[in-house]
Design goal:
2 copies of one chain form a homodimer.
Chain A: H1 5-27, H2 31-46, E1 50-57, E2 62-69, H3 74-78, E3 82-84, H4 88-96, E4 100-102, H5 113-119, E5 126-133, E6 136-144, H6 154-197, H7 203-218, E7 220-229, E8 234-240, E9 252-254, H8 258-266, E10 270-272, H9 284-289, E11 296-306, E12 314-327, H10 335-378, H11 386-400, H12 405-417, H13 427-430, H14 438-444, H15 447-455, H16 465-469, H17 491-506, H18 517-526, H19 534-545
Antiparallel strand pairs in A: 1-2, 1-6, 2-3, 4-5, 5-6, 7-8, 7-12, 8-9, 10-11, 11-12
Helix pairs in contact in A: 1-2, 1-6, 2-6, 6-7, 6-10, 7-10, 11-12, 11-17, 11-19, 12-17, 17-18
Chain lengths: 560, 560
Amino acid sequence: MGVSQGGVAALRRRLDLLRRADLILSQVEDGRLLQRQFLALMMEAARVESGTLYLLDAERDELVFAVVEGPAGVAQALEGRRMPADWGIAGRCARQGRVIWVPSVEESRDWARDLAERSGYHPQNVLCLPLKAQERVIGVVQLFDRPPASPYSQTDIDFLSLLVNDLALKLENARLLSTSREMVERLRALLDVGVELGATLDRGHLLGLILEQVCRLLQTEAASIFELDEASGELVLCATTRPVPEELGTIRIPVGEGIAGWVAREGRTEVVPDVRQDSRFYPQVGEQTGFITRSILCTPLVIQEQVAGQEGIFRRRVIGVAQALNKRDGEPFTRADIEIFEGLARQAAIAMERVRLYRQVNDLFASALMALAEAMEAKDSYTRGHTRRVTDFSVAIAEELGLPPEEVHKVRTAAMLHDIGKIGMPDAILQKPGRVDEAEREVIRRHPQEGERILRPLQHLHEVLPGVAEHHERYDGTGYPRGLRGEEISLYGRIVAVADVFDALTSERCYRQAMPVEAALEEMRAQAGRAFDPHVLEAFFQAWEKGRIALSEPDSATPT
Amino acid sequence: MGVSQGGVAALRRRLDLLRRADLILSQVEDGRLLQRQFLALMMEAARVESGTLYLLDAERDELVFAVVEGPAGVAQALEGRRMPADWGIAGRCARQGRVIWVPSVEESRDWARDLAERSGYHPQNVLCLPLKAQERVIGVVQLFDRPPASPYSQTDIDFLSLLVNDLALKLENARLLSTSREMVERLRALLDVGVELGATLDRGHLLGLILEQVCRLLQTEAASIFELDEASGELVLCATTRPVPEELGTIRIPVGEGIAGWVAREGRTEVVPDVRQDSRFYPQVGEQTGFITRSILCTPLVIQEQVAGQEGIFRRRVIGVAQALNKRDGEPFTRADIEIFEGLARQAAIAMERVRLYRQVNDLFASALMALAEAMEAKDSYTRGHTRRVTDFSVAIAEELGLPPEEVHKVRTAAMLHDIGKIGMPDAILQKPGRVDEAEREVIRRHPQEGERILRPLQHLHEVLPGVAEHHERYDGTGYPRGLRGEEISLYGRIVAVADVFDALTSERCYRQAMPVEAALEEMRAQAGRAFDPHVLEAFFQAWEKGRIALSEPDSATPT
């Protein structure tokens, strides 16, 4: 068997090319460099001067110009561009998954003339090879302008296919690995977020955290959270990263309307890549806030709740929806984005439900105390409604003073409990018509301390106890039980004192008539700096003038 | 330049081997098959009949016999075995990261004679090639018994190195990808667990779920959870998958002692691959329960809690530790296991803290009601302590009836609230010495309904309201207010009725002396089927006989 010198040289050259391919694949880690070096090697193997490596973006079904080698300017015009996965000769190659040889590009009906015009490059012929990994096409290599004098042999094409396979394998491995590693990082971040959401019991703080994490984990421009108001069947916007002008009031979307409403009704995630092409989108909110929504990822907030009385049986309940708006890079949301967003939404829903439950138990606690105070008062027609009125007045004063919500809440609790110490006192003294004697007065004057004593076992209430213990102290130091003076008296005590006296003056008692309101206000003002902290008293008068403190009819419990 | 026929054949053969290697690498997905086929190809390329592929287990620093080809029986004797990563000729190759040629195995001081003896195979010479990925050695290929007549040329060795590189690249990619994908799956499972833990408010159910998930996610034989008792500085075993004999009582470990105590003190995870070699391990518990602990993974349960009054400032607090014991496959815990366990522990700690907080608020609620009931009773020396005694008696009866803990809790609440309806009734009637008249009796008889009315706004208490409303109903239908009969009366009502009457009989009232206890018990028994449900009454007597119901001195609040 005779062997030509050329044949041996070709064999040696191929072995050498394989060895170099191996070096590139095993040593180059940077993706762009790998692709560039590999295409250069393919062009050398094919003995051509121009070539293109396309990669398939399967999620968007597009071919991306990954590397373009050729006359000056061509690469700049094309690299990074995208085209539909079935366009042009490359598209045919990708679709059919086999090698295509086009001896005359101009005569091919597949040739994408527009792109060629744009790049300014007009090749004569092209060999097109698919990159395949596990039987799926993941890209295409085009090799242009083989000299017509030396056409490709079958062996040439087999060898080029072998080289392309090596590249496909490497690229696919790298893609799978980087996708998987990215997912590991995102899931880890998601777990951290779950822990962070689990650490707060403050609703406002929680909602802010959720929005922040949506924008961070999904890299979006904005996010918002709606809660389902089951009574009205509406979604209520409860938090958003975009400032909503106050004049818009509360934004509500009926379930079933708009994208958020659709998601709440269907109970599943919806991706809207371009809101202009989705008839459900209604742009009013955006127009009013000046935010231009392009794309939306919207998912329901769902909790699993135990079916009452059925151990271990849970049912899904939609409590709201979360939206992520406009990815920062302008790309569409990916499958990984959806998974992460759904995971975040599950954690957010649990955290929101936990905070709601905690609030509910606290509210329950408050209403139980109020119910008891009212029951206690009910046996004396003169004091009926006193606790509720003092509570309303105290809250109005606290708000007028600009206290933060949690402080207002403590003032409310202190006011509700201010007379609880009377619970152990004989009716005969509390309800005595006419003046009480000195011994009886001593008993009554014990009620602030007695209230403090009763409540002391309740750790939860420690901060509000001074409001109970000190509501009969006077600003000038002449009050009881301790004769505290000025700022020695807790703010809660100073607030409740004002509210308590005003209600006492304007209510009928068994031993005297109610004072006309003007006289009562005059009496109050006269006590500035004597019974009352002038600053607190000022807040009382402001609340009075704004109508936030008002007298009710004797039998109606709540002033409105 | 002359080319021999042999040279051309060798070139063709190498190209063909590379092509086949490429096929194996791109088409074989099963790891074992891939390794087997590849080693066979290497042996063909080296023209030898025996070979071994070792893979490095970096975490344990061992070489594993992955594939062994050679005389019958050798593979069975060696495949799957492990040896320290620096043993033998393979170990030297791995350590030095370069090709080693040993022309006479018997004369090499590195030769692992023991293993050779065990396999019964005695090779003459060996070529040893490292598998490298990104400059790290990931395994070794040994090729035995090249015919001495045709020694390896440098070109042969270069070519075999090229082949080995291809395999190393593929194996490393596959390993990285499968490690990463496994992590994705484990993290997803962990996220699901977080959601599951977030759905329960029942402590026992939560602890059971945590243990179950530890065993599932880490594939261990057992798991346990200790809670830190800050008062005593001890860890208290609160849940374990192993049944603990009752006679052992509560298992406590001082912080700082044993492995769990060490982890609680240091606040970080500890892995103990073999407890027999760890002086901290103390085997008492295991000996008593008959469980043999081999390996332990132990991590602290830590929560982030807000520093009081400092918005946004959190501090770490150890609330306990979790242990995973004995991996099912007998292997040591991996880094991935540790990450998953720590992630699970973070979620478990949050869920436990949430349940504790919820309990605490509920307990607070209960103690507030008790405080009020006691304050109310305090003004009448005759009824002082009545509510607490009725509550203790009712709980003892409920437990004697074998009710589950949540039902006992409801009985307790109903008992605490049974007389709350008296809160709005005049002292003059409640404390009247001597007999009350008909009108006064009517007022007093309203207290069960009045209690129900006061508590109705509290959704949380709906289930226990019948216990309040029906504690004066009689089993024979002659009670008040509704004249319910038999099982028409709620179980809570039937229990509180027994407890209430017993305390009334044995306490002094303003209008009569306390009855001697024997007479009271006789009177109680006489009411079986009349005032009382006989079944509930029976439980009362059993509790009495066991000393779980006892009379206290008039001034001591709790019978013990």
